[in-house]
Amino acid sequence: MPTPLIPATPSRLLAEQALSRAAGAPLLNGNAVDLLIDAAAHYEAWLAAICGARQRVLLENYIIRDDEVGRAFRDALVERAQAGVFVAVVVDWLGCLGQSRGAFWAPLRAAGGEVRVFNPLQLGQPLGWISRDHRKLLVVDGVLGFLSGVCISAKWLGDPARGVPPWRDTGVALRGPAVAELEAAFAQSWGETGVALRQLPAAAEPATPAGDVALRLIATQPSTAGMYRLDQMIAAMARKTLWLTDAYFVGLAPYVQALVAAARDGVDVRLLVPGSSDIPVVAGMSRSGYRPLLKAGIRMFEWNGSMLHAKTAVADGQWARVGSSNLNIASWLGNRELDVAVEDAGFARQLAAQYERDLDNATEIVLASRRHRHGGGSRERVCRSEVPPPRVRHAGGSSGRAAAGALRIANSVGAVLTNRRVLGDTGSGSLVIGTVVLAVLAVVAFVWPAWIGWPFGAIAAWFALNLGIRSWRARKRRWRELRDADDD
């Protein structure tokens, strides 16, 4: 059995109950978990599993791109469907926008496979497109499952010919009772896109347990906040270490306060984030929140590669999380996400060792002391190296946006020797950008008012159309109910 997060039996039972309620997921024993690092290992394992399928393949991913990697997966699915294997695929409409079109899936549909698109833009729901299916899930024959942060796109492999390193990402392969939960999570998403998933035959009971790992599978849905509650609770329960990796960190105030409180209690809290992001505006928002974390003693690191896309956590060498959820409001409250929380010392040690290897390719962010010119006092500030850092090219974003943003690497001899640098005052940079944008909008509004009026008019018309459609649908449904009541 795995070593408990809290060793005393009464506390252990209380912790298990609290974690189960927070996550909305029970603790499942008897699983085997294998760690997968970066896209090449994922794609090899995923394709091997698909090609070996005998009954069914269930695939759900935020992005499946029409490139050499996406076509390799589609062709493998086509071959299995032609062999009589039930193949069902769910992709996200926004994630695949500009990445792959309906024609991309025509061969699979012709072979008997089924493909559905989650939450396409539709009239009557003006803001409905905001909620996305951000899960990355694969289940084969009900006995082997995968979940990850990796999408199906050649971008994750980098581009050696152009000097673009592979993206850094993390996932797991699962066997045991957790696989049935993965299938249930897929069935949820499938049911959200149309008719419910067909009844699948239960996998044969194994003669012996697949492994001895206890875990929780957290399949979050919009507004449920199960992963948010669990992240908050782990921050509160950690006693020695809490090491986090996140691709798009924009922490809510309560979560930041939980991390700060843990650090001030003596917990070794570390946060590893991208140095060069595929979505620069998110990176800027993340950097603007470094100061309170650093002042509380939290150690911040920026990845030196092309893109860090992993979402992981490891606490006290006993508890670990891997999946698709980022530490931001979109993942916590808006999207469909999928994560596994593992309560096993062996797996936690693996993930912690990988974390330390990742720090070898990262740069630590520190606070610097600034002396006042008058009065002789000093105070801490977040400051940037005066020498412009080199830029690393990478192969685009998880939502198809072009690469942008500089990789912040030390350039001074001291930074080379210590692998530490100081960060510039990012808050003032955000204020300058906001000032410029608002000033430009003000000038445009005064000089060319139509350039402001027409877009606002179009937005108002869009919302009016959608609200009108929803009102008509509601009235139609009400009339139908009244008519049915009169018939009774």
Q: List unreliable stretches of 5+ residues.
A: 1-6, 384-391, 395-421, 423-427
**Largest beta-sheet details:** 16 strands, mixed
| Mean residue pLDDT | 84
CATH class of the largest domain: Alpha Beta
Number of domains: 3
Find the CATH topology of the largest domain: Endonuclease, Chain A
Measured distance between first and last alpha carbons: 59 Å
Would you mind describing this structure in some detail?
The chain has 488 residues and is α+β, with helices and mostly antiparallel strands. It folds into three domains: 9-25 and 222-371 and 378-385, Endonuclease Chain A (Endonuclease, Chain A, 2-Layer Sandwich), CATH 3.30.870.10; 39-165 and 177-210, Endonuclease, Chain A (2-Layer Sandwich), CATH 3.30.870.10; 436-487. The chain is 40% helix and 21% strand. It has helices spanning 9-23, 38-51, 68-82, 93-96, 106-110, 178-192, 226-237, 253-264, 280-287, 290-295, 329-334, 345-359, 413-418, 426-447, 449-487; strands at residues 28-37, 56-61, 86-92, 114-118, 136-140, 144-148, 170-175, 213-220, 241-245, 268-274, 299-303, 312-315, 319-323, 337-343, 362-366, 368-371, 378-381, 420-422. The strands form two sheets. Strands 4-3-2-5-6-7-1-8-14-13-12-9-10-11-15-18 form a 16-stranded mixed beta sheet, with helices on both faces. The chain has a two-stranded antiparallel sheet with strand order 16-17. Helix 8 links the parallel strand 9 (241-245) and strand 10. Helix 1 runs antiparallel to helix 7, helix 7 runs parallel beside helix 8 (253-264) and helix 14 crosses helix 15. 41% of the residues are buried. The model is unreliable at 1-6, 384-391, 395-421 and 423-427 (pLDDT under 50).
